[in-house]
Amino acid sequence: MSLKKIAEMVGTSPSTVSRVLNNSYATCASEQLKEKIWAAAHEINYLPNQSARKLKLGEREDAQKKTLHLVVVLARVESLAGDPFFQELYRYLEIDIFQKGFTVEKILTADETLRGTDIGTCDGIIVLGRCSRNLLDTLRRSTRNLVGIWRNPMNFEIDEVVCDGRKAADLAVSYLIEHGHRKIGYIGDCSYESRYVGYNETIIRNQLPLDYSCIIPTGQTREEGFDAMNRLLKNEEMTAVLCANDCIAFGALRALREYKGLGRRKISVISIDNVEEAQTTSPLLTTVHIPREDMAHMALQILHDRILHGHREKLRVEFPCRIVERDSCFRV
Amino acid sequence: MSLKKIAEMVGTSPSTVSRVLNNSYATCASEQLKEKIWAAAHEINYLPNQSARKLKLGEREDAQKKTLHLVVVLARVESLAGDPFFQELYRYLEIDIFQKGFTVEKILTADETLRGTDIGTCDGIIVLGRCSRNLLDTLRRSTRNLVGIWRNPMNFEIDEVVCDGRKAADLAVSYLIEHGHRKIGYIGDCSYESRYVGYNETIIRNQLPLDYSCIIPTGQTREEGFDAMNRLLKNEEMTAVLCANDCIAFGALRALREYKGLGRRKISVISIDNVEEAQTTSPLLTTVHIPREDMAHMALQILHDRILHGHREKLRVEFPCRIVERDSCFRV
DNA sequence: CCAGGCAAAGCAATCGTTTGCCATATATCA
DNA sequence: TGATATATGGCAAACGATTGCTTTGCCTGG
User: Fold this and answer.
1) CATH number for the domain including A306?
2) What is the mean pLDDT of residues A315-326?
3) CB contact under 8 A, B121 and A49
4) CA A55/CA B51 separation, integer angstroms
5) Which residues have C-beta within 8 Å of that of residue B31, sequence separation ≥ 6?
6) Size of interface A-B (CB pairs under 8 A)
7) 3-state secondary structure of B286
8) Could you list the residue range(s) of the whole structural domain that residue B8 is in?
9) Contacts of residue B284 in chain A, CB cutoff 8 Å?
10) What is the CATH number of the domain that holds A2?
11) Distance CA A246, CA A270 (A)
């Protein structure tokens, strides 16, 4: 299944076969020979060896080659691979890349080693989610076409497409405050997450009390959201809660539905991400939309432009987020 | 960033550098030289060119090589890429492969062309979801290590891991019948889907009337499920409905929640797949569990075994499915 | 003092594809 | 007819990594 075999079959040389199969030159073989070559190729079901192809073609620095090979790096697999936000984001990227006729390779990494991967020879890299400076430096050394998609602002020296988690949280908390809530809880990651910072800032800016018994540090799964909300329900003054992401909120909503405690309590729930699932929960989830699709498109566009036209100064595109009002928040 | 460059830096030959970096032979260089080589490699942040590596290593037919490269083919992108069943299935595969230290490449294809992909040189292929005989033949010609994961039995001549959609539907409908339902609707694909066949068979076997006004042929999105259920609600005798997959059911449940029609109707909803989202809907969805995780593991195990120990006869592993009882079905 | 053994390192071929350049053969024109 | 284009196709050198074989030098035992 190599060019040489085809060449032997029809009695010519590999070079001619290559040129015919790639349509490289109009006049490289007679019509008769061309036909025989195509026939032979079909007969043995020829597929070019991509390794050989890339090896040879890699030298050529012309960015006009038809098929770009992109790499998407997902660091911190443990926490990010299961997050529907990144799953949906990646799906948008993948479909878009597919439709453009390019190829992608997704690289998972937990310990940030990149051995065995193709990042050295690809045309561009997209990094998903916060990652270490160390990893980023490694990536920077292997390509000049590097775009990050973050949910937190990261002052790295690469092109970035961001949607600021601090602002998203601000939007959500402000929305709750406008709806008359004074005692607003928080469920989610409290260590690095800019969303937590946004929550904090907005509470303080509005001179509301910061009650640490209303703040439940937790992971980002449905289960954890469920448990956290059950704990939070012990606080009788709290009327609303911001969940750091939708998954947590799905669990929280379930806890509320199953709540059998005293009295009739209507707790408002808001969160951030607006993944697809938020359209069918009960009640439908009010959440802050992070424009994954737009972000994916923009990242790809920047990368494509970089590859074709080289580098200008560092680019930073920030997307605004917006509240999607559904049924999980009430006025008090 | 090539072996040659490192060799030049330290004043030796590429062969020696290769052997040192790969630890090929213990005695291939003096300690002093080794150190210098490692230092140089770190300095220029050397990463081996995978294309060159694969090209060279490809010849070696020994299956003992440490790092297997697998390919997962997802045909019919349009309909399958957005299906959470396949997303979750792929995630299990991906994580498992990642943890084993192998590499994967996911190939999307709509028109079934495989040009530009690496299927010719990989160690094994997994096919996700029903695909054409034509595509399968192409794949078969490029590797002997080929496993399909189907939701329908497909009598192809390759190893397959299946969970029979007909039986799943049978299970679901029987469950409804046991709960006293006589007029059971169906929402979903009616053209090829074995699930529809199962629905039909079970209705007939139980001598229930087959009412085509209760059967809504539709796609597989939440939206379509929502619309279909709204149409179905016009039929006043129907008390239960089987949705061909969970997504449809999510939309259907929402339609029920928002139903403002006459009287108090409790429609039972059951579906097939048991994707993660089914754990947080309202009401929690009763559904037939398709063991994606087990199927993924099994497929990988078969493939691994094939690669290491060659071929015996064709393997076919069928996984049983089971009802996961939650809150969306009622007794009449 | 010499044969044999081993450590240290290089040579060169190879994987499959592409492509610049060269060599024919045939056609065209002055 | 001789000179010049043009069609047709092959040669061989890359791309980067790996590895069998060779070479060189040094040490040791007889």
Assistant:
1) 3.40.50.2300
2) 96
3) yes
4) 6
5) none
6) 127
7) strand
8) 1-46
9) 254
10) 1.10.260
11) 8
Q: Would the Cβ of A22 be found within 7 angstroms of any atom in strand C?
A: yes
| Interchain pair B51, A116: CB under 8 A | no
Tell whether B284 and B296 lie within a shared domain: no
Beta strands in B83-171 (DSSP E): 103-109, 124-128, 146-150, 159-162
Whether residues A27 and A72 fall in one domain: no
One domain, residues A251 and A296: no
DSSP state of A284: P
Residue B119 tokens read as 């299927």
CB interface of B with A, residues 264-323, below 8 Å: 276-277, 279-282, 284
In a domain, B23, yes or no: yes
Tokens of A88: 């949906």
Both tokens assigned to B111:
């028109």
Whole-angstrom CA distances from A318 to A92, A315, A321, B121, B208 are 18, 10, 10, 41, 59
Q: Is the CB of A50 under 7 A from strand D?
A: no
Q: Is B139 in the same domain as B222? A: no
Say what the pTM is: 0.90
B331 within a domain of the structure (yes/no) = no
Test A50 with B121 for CB contact under 8 angstroms.
Answer: yes
Beta strands in A95-168 (DSSP E): 103-109, 124-128, 146-150, 159-162
Asked whether A189 and A196 are in contact (CB, 8 A), the reply is: yes
In a domain, A54, yes or no: no
- Domain match, A269 and A225 both: yes
Residue B218 lies in a domain: yes
Count the domains in chain A.
3
Mean pLDDT by 10 residues, chain B (332 residues): 92 94 84 93 91 84 69 88 92 92 88 80 91 88 91 86 96 98 95 89 96 94 95 93 96 92 85 93 94 97 89 90 97 92
